[in-house]
Design brief:
The complex is a heterodimer of chains A (305) and B (417). Chain A has 305 residues and is an all-alpha fold. Chain A has 14 helices and 2 strands. Chain B has 2 domains: 2-138 and 303-371, Periplasmic binding protein-like II (D-Maltodextrin-Binding Protein, domain 2, 3-Layer(aba) Sandwich), CATH 3.40.190.10; 141-300 and 379-414, Periplasmic binding protein-like II (D-Maltodextrin-Binding Protein, domain 2, 3-Layer(aba) Sandwich), CATH 3.40.190.10. In chain B, α2 runs antiparallel to α16 (328-338) and α10 crosses α11. The chains are: A mainly alpha (305), B alpha/beta (417).
């Protein structure tokens, strides 16, 4: 009797306790992540200017896939998508450059800490400040780059006014802090590289590129994994630099999806909530491709252990 | 919150000053606004004058940050409507009128003879035959020029009547030779290019055609629009290069430094020019040159307005206040303090300010009509597509056909035929 009664109770406690501990997190996740996702997806099927009437009733109109079919033919959406792709590809430059700087700084010289912190500095300052600094750097008439190109070629290049160069100009600004971020990830990774393996490899005659490729990099895999994740996410959510440096201009040529979404939903000439939500859903799906990939890989690694 | 507090403090001070008042007996009118410090002080003075004349009414102003207001108004009109709210005339107020959030105040217009005294603003305050706004201030647009730049390039300084279009373009050629930008603008925020487009459009085809264009009623492939872009194309080579990457204030610096000669701008820029060191001696104002001979001259004058909300708790007293705001006396005082133009034709402007005098003159003789500026005359989304097109044309004139095609596609999508 006693045994039969105690078994289900023990079972209950064991299964309930983790849920109790998870509850606050799940609640937050549900309210601040899952629910907004559902809301956004729902909203993307409506045409709504963000206003309720005076009785507090929703004034939106159901349009089904209307917003999505409009996206298909929207040249601004196409530009944003291409720009996002440029961001993704070029942002990956942060990995090799960050690794190079990390290896370069991974030595014991007098004052190396100072150099390290100087290289890390751009990551510490706000993206807004980075954007402003680069906007001034590129500015026509008084910007340093403009004056340099004017001296060199007789004709100044105003990168932010040139529809073909503007996105690259902003990506360059974004890479500056991103490289620092990747560098710090690799620096910590380099601390954990086993010295005995380096020693052994050296005895076997490995050096230079072969040492880097076959001995050091495999040990840096966890750092590389994290660096890829933060760089991909950093590239996809690029918003602040576009907003600070160009407002998506000139004539919309530097828009990315996240900025276009903001423009359509909340910008001065926007307030098309449904259309903005549809852009957000597309961005979300693109991100999901990468995020599921990462989660799947982490899951696999956990299982292997 | 800080603004809110200053409002409350000022109000408290006003209450203490009017000794006869019993605070608890007063009927409250709430008013949400988005004023910078100078207009805020003017509005507080206006309230004080009104309360002195109507001791039983207490007007409570809540001031918002200008940028934050654009979002805030969308919330407070439904969640917690004040009696009165600031906004803008013409198409800018249309979404709120159509959602039933702004109340019809045709009676205020009819009972106070505003149809006559605010004649220039009737169109922009009216939607479907009813008035929804009380306009209390506007400012003129036109060409501000640097007399020193004209002298440096050896070009005759224009008189108050301005110059002809051919003369203007010929001047531009001389400025180009002297390495001075004939027309400057800073279009990183897009809207400054709309000023240039609006004027070229209104001078080429007149007010009505321009207004129809902004309303999506005429095609971008029409010969009239082609003529507008022909004229814009004549101006294009003389506009500051790289204007797409600079703010309007940076372009103002070019004018101040004499690196540019003319600037198509609104009168609010005078403050910036003067802060940069210009004076009434070297800063000039003229109306935009006539292009097609014989077309009645139209001008741009964006109007600021106050609206009665549908959720107002005290609409009667709010209307009394609106009638006061519309009066010549109140408008003369408010606009004198702020340096803008009253919309009431019986109001007065400071004769010592040459720009206000010239603007008042230009607007009161504009028989063609008063436009509200592209982004207020056109629907918001249409306005944005348009401004991107104008900006692109002034950077890449060779893309003209592609731009017009895109604008026409946007028009047929937004205004199904």
């Amino acid at each position: 009797m006693a045994e039969a009664a105690s078994t289900p109770r023990r079972w209950t406690q064991r299964s309930v306790a983790p849920w109790l501990f998870l509850a606050p997190g799940l609640l937050m996740f549900g309210v601040y992540v899952l629910w907004p996702i559902v809301e956004s997806v729902t909203l993307s099927f409506y045409d709504w200017d963000g206003l309720y009437n005076k009785d507090g009733e929703f004034t939106g109109r159901f349009v089904g896939m209307g917003n999505y079919s409009e996206l298909m033919t929207d040249p601004a959406f196409e530009t944003s998508l291409w720009n996002n792709l440029k961001w993704l590809v070029l942002y990956m430059l942060a990995l090799p450059i960050g690794l190079f700087i990390a290896i370069f700084l991974n030595q014991t010289v007098r004052g190396i800490r100072l150099y390290k912190s100087l290289f890390f500095f751009p990551f510490v300052i706000s993206q807004v400040v980075v954007g402003l600094i680069f906007a001034w750097f590129y500015a026509p008439n008084f910007g340093l780059l403009y004056l340099l190109t004017e001296n060199a070629f007789g004709q100044g290049t105003a990168i932010l006014a040139d529809p073909d160069l503007v996105t690259y100009g902003i990506i360059a600004a974004g890479l500056w802090p991103q490289i620092a971020y990747v560098m710090i990830l690799y620096l910590t990774g380099l601390n954990n590289v086993a010295p005995d393996q380096i020693e052994a490899a050296r005895l076997d005659g490995a050096k230079g590129w072969r040492m880097l490729w076959y001995v050091v990099l495999p040990q840096l895999r966890p750092a590389t994994f994290i660096a890829v994740i933060v760089t991909v996410i950093g590239a996809l959510r690029s918003f602040d630099l576009v907003s600070i440096m160009t407002n998506g201009g000139p004539f919309g040529s530097s828009r990315v999806l996240s900025y276009y979404m903001f423009e359509m939903a909340l910008g001065e000439y926007g307030f098309r909530m449904g259309y903005g939500a549809a852009i957000a859903v597309v961005l979300f799906l693109i991100m999901m491709v990468f995020i599921s990939g990462f989660i799947w890989k982490m899951w696999r690694d956990e299982k292997e252990r | 919150m800080v603004h809110k507090l200053t409002g409350a403090v000022a109000l408290g001070a006003a209450l203490m000053l009017s000794t006869s008042a019993f605070a608890q007996d007063k009927r409250v009118v709430t008013w949400n606004a988005d004023y910078d410090p100078i207009p805020l002080a003017a509005a507080e003075a206006l309230i004080a004058d009104f309360e002195a004349a109507n001791p039983e009414i207490d007007v409570v102003l809540t001031n918002f940050d200008h940028e934050a207001y654009k979002n805030a108004i969308r919330n407070f009109l439904t969640a917690d409507p004040p009696d009165l709210a600031n906004w803008y005339a013409a198409n800018r107020m249309r979404p709120f009128v159509e959602a039933g959030l702004f109340a019809d105040i045709s009676d205020v217009w009819a009972n106070n003879g505003l149809m006559d005294s605010l004649a220039s603003s009737v169109l922009s305050s009216t939607i479907d035959g009813k008035q929804y706004a009380v306009p209390y201030t506007y400012y003129q647009w036109g060409i501000y020029y640097n007399r020193d730049a004209y002298k440096a390039a050896g070009v005759d300084v224009p008189g108050p009547e301005g110059v002809t279009w051919d003369q203007f373009l010929a001047n531009c050629e001389k400025f180009k030779a002297a390495n001075i930008d004939c027309v400057t603008t800073g279009s990183s925020a897009l809207w400054p290019v709309a000023g240039i487009f609006d004027y070229v459009s209104m001078r080429t085809n007149g007010y009505q055609f321009h207004s129809d264009l902004a309303a999506g009623k005429v095609s971008w492939t029409s010969p009239e629009v082609a003529a507008v872009f022909d004229n814009l194309g004549k101006l294009q080579p003389y506009v500051t290069a790289n204007h797409a990457a600079i703010d309007w204030q940076d372009a103002a610096a070019l004018l101040v430094q004499g690196k540019a000669a003319n600037y198509v701008m609104g009168n609010f820029a005078v403050g910036v020019f003067k802060e940069g060191g210009m004076t009434n001696d070297n800063l000039g104002f003229m109306v935009f040159p006539e292009i097609t001979a014989g077309i009645a001259r139209a001008e741009e004058a964006p109007t600021d307005t106050i609206h009665l909300t549908s959720g107002a708790k005290n609409p009667e007293d709010a209307k009394t206040f609106l009638a006061y705001v519309a009066s010549a006396e109140a408008q003369s005082k408010w606009n004198a303090a702020v340096g803008q133009l009253p919309t009431n034709k019986n109001a007065t402007v400071d004769p010592a300010d040459p720009f206000l005098t010239a603007g008042f003159q230009a607007l009161s003789t504009a028989t063609g009509g008063i436009a509200q500026f592209w982004d207020r005359d056109a629907d918001a989304e249409y306005a944005k597509v348009g401004m991107e097109g104008f900006q692109q044309f002034l950077v890449q004139p060779e893309q003209r056909d592609a731009i017009l095609e895109r604008l026409e596609a946007a028009r047929t999508r937004l205004y199904p035929q």
